[in-house]
Amino acid sequence: MPAKFITSAIRAADLPESGKPHICMLGRSNVGKSSLINHLAGQKGLARTSSQPGLTQTINLFEFDGRYMLVDLPGYGYSRKARSKGEGFERMLSGYLSEAELLKLVVLIIDARHGLTELDRDALAQLKEAQLPHVIVANKSDKLSNSQAAQITRELRTEFPDAKVILHSINDSRGLGEIREAIEKAVRAHKEERKG
Ligand code: GTP
Ligand code: MG
Fold this sequence. Notes:
By secondary structure, the protein is of the alpha/beta class. Helices cover about 35% and strands about 20% of the residues. A 7-stranded mixed β-sheet has the order 1-3-4-2-5-6-7, sandwiched between helices. The longest helix is centred in the C-terminal third of the chain and has 20 residues, at about 175-195. It is globular and about 45 Å long. The structure holds guanosine-5'-triphosphate and magnesium ion (MG).
C-alpha cells in the first residue's frame, strides 16, 4: 500500500487539514504502534521504531493510498521526554483525541503477553466516553504459544464484547487483514457521513 510521511506536530491543532479520515494508533510506549504502521504500509522504515520505549514524541501523520491518514502517537506510560518538552503529554494525547474531528478509528494496541494495564483501561474508558470507534490489537503474539494466544484472545473478547479484538504480530501476517478491514470500514463510514 503506497504510504508517505506527511508531517509531525506537537499539538493536534497544528496538524494540516486534509479532509481525509484519521485512524490513530494508541497504546503504551514500546507496544508496537509505529511498527504496526510500517506493517500496514509494507515499508519497514516509514515510521521510526526502537527497542527502547519513548521513541515517538510527536503526533506523526502518514498518508495511505491517498485516501486516509494513519496517525502515530507517542506512547503512554513513558512520558519523561515529552513532558520536559513543555507540552504536557497527557494534554497532547487527550487534546488529539478530543479535537481531531476527522478521527474515525482508534487502534488501541496492547501487549498480548501482558493484557490490559491500568493505563490501557483508562484509555479505553476515555474512548468509550468520547464514543470513538475503536478496535483492540493484541500485539507481539509471536511471543506466545498458539494456545496462550487463543486464551488471551478469548479472555479479551469476553471482557470487551463491544470491541473488535485482533491478534497481531509484525513477524507474520496474523491479524493484518483484519486490521486493514477495520480501517477500510472506518474510511467507508466517513465517506457515507460526508455524502449524507
Ligand atoms: P513508542 O514510540 O516508544 O511509544 O513505541 P511504539 O509503540 O511505537 O513501539 P515500536 O513500534 O517502536 O516497537 C517497539 C519494539 O517492539 C521494537 O523493538 C519492535 O521491533 C518491537 N515489536 C513491535 N511489534 C512487534 C511484534 O509484533 N512482535 C515482536 N516480537 N516485536 C515487536
Ligand atoms: Mg512509536
